[in-house]
Every structure is written in structure tokens, then in C-alpha cells.
Amino acid sequence: MKLSEAIELLTTTYQSLDAVASGLSVDAKEVNDALNKADKDSAEYVALQALAKFNPYENTKKEKVKKDDDYDQE
Amino acid sequence: MALPNKVLPGFSASLYAQSGATPTALSTANLSVYASTSGIAVAGNLLPVEAIPAFGQDDAVANFNVAGSRQSDKIPTQAAPTSMTITAAWNPSDANLLQMRADAYNGTIDRTFVISATDGTNIVNYAFNGRVGQFTVDPNPTAESKATFTVHPRGNQYGWSNNA
Questions:
Q1: Could you tell me which of A72, B29, B40, B82 has the fewest CB atoms within 10 Å of its CB?
Q2: DSSP string, A21-45
């Protein structure tokens, strides 16, 4: 599902945001990027937070760097 | 210090109701947006209530008997939001009280209510959608006339926001 469609659905629904967001499959990176740009006092931000809960974004690159750092210390 | 911790130890709270005979209640997401709820928490929408009643969620449990165990087990189940019974001084000229009466007679009007708590500087808004299910006027001549009405919040339709 497109992120814009998911946001539209979540900002207009009268149901529980968690219940609706749990059924929406969106790209986790797109959600994370949009969350970083969104105005914190907006319905879009609230919708993106609900989506992020069920579509968590993990930055694998950062984790790899951290592991390398650990090796250097040893 | 997080705003709720700063405001809640000493604050005053007011109840506001969205205006209009057939309002469009805020969507669930917008109930958590200060910019949306602060538009409802304005002087013209103030309900002249004597006190803000308890709000939140009722209790509901299922009791399971466990064979061989001394104690049974209680599991929380789906619970209703707490209904708010509100008392106000009856003023037949107050547009907002008359609106509550009209809502009670109708029974199907969804309206956004906002409880606004402030310490004088910062504001925390608790917003929810609800319907009015009861409205009575007590015209006892030995005391001030009182209007009592009950707001039944709709399930899952609530949100917190603040101006910090």
C-alpha cells in the first residue's frame, strides 16, 4: 500500500489507530523518512507513529559499523 | 520536566464542547493534535460545569476456574470507556447547555469534547468524541437549579496533546 494512502486512511478514521495500522503494510524506510520530516503537531505525525509501531525501521548499516568498532576495541 | 508532570500537580481544568448542531467530530488522529483540539477549547465553547468527573476506562474481567488450583484466574476483557455524569448550574440561556440537551434528545450526535488542564502557562488537552445520553434539570426550589447530563465517550476515540 502507498504511504500516502495509509496516512489518508489513518488521519480520517474514527477507529483505534493501532487496530487500523496493524493491517496496513507499508515500506518501513518510507515511514521513517516521513516521520523525521513531519510536523510533530499534525495528524500525519500521529498516523506515522502508529505505522512505525507496526513497520519498524532498522538501520542495518549503523549496526554493522558499531560491530566493527567493537572489534577494534578488542 | 515533562509537561504533564509540571501541570498536573496543581492545575485547573475546564470542559469544552465542539459547537454546532451537527458537528463533524475530530478523527482519532486529530484528537492527539494540539492545533486541532485548541480550536475547540475556546471561551465560546465552555460548558459551565461544577466539576470535571472521572474519565478513563471501566473495569471488565472474566473469571476462569483452574482445575486443581486454590485460586481462580481473572483476565481483563474488553472494557467500556467511563461514562461522565456532569452537573452544571441550569441556565436556560446558555447555548452550550441547550446544545447538550438537544444532543441528549437526539442521541446520535457525535461531538468532540475537550478537557483542558492548565497551570496558567502550559496547557494539556484531553480530547474525546462522545454522545450525550441523559439530560435532567432539577428545579428544587430550596437550591440553585441544576442540569445533569451524561456524556458517553466513543470507544478508542480519545487523544492527549499539549502546547509545550
A1: A72
A2: HTT----HHHHHHHHHHS-TTSHHH
Smallest CA–CA distance from A46 into chain B, residue = B29
Residue of A nearest to B112 (CA): A14
Closest by Cβ to A42, choosing from B27, B33, B159? B33
pTM for this one?
0.84
Residue B98, C-alpha cell as written in the block: 441547550
Q: Predicted ipTM?
A: 0.79
Under a CB-based contact definition with an 8 Å cutoff, are residues B36 and B30 in contact? Answer: yes
Range of the domain at B44: 3-56+82-162
User: How many distinct structural domains can be found in chain B?
Assistant: 1
Chain B interface test: which of A11, A40, A46, A48 (most B C-beta within 10 Å)? A46
Q: Please tell me which of the candidates A10, A13, A46 has its beta carbon nearest to residue B33.
A: A46
- CATH classification at residue B104: 2.30.110
B43 found inside a domain:
yes
Domains in chain A: boundaries: 3-73
Q: Is A14 on the interface with B (CB under 8 A)?
A: yes
Residue-wise pLDDT tens digits, A18-73: 999 999 999 999 999 999 999 999 999 999 999 999 999 887 766 555 555 555 55
- Joined together, the cell numbers standing for residue A29 give 524506510
Q: Which three cell numbers stand for residue B82?
A: 467511563
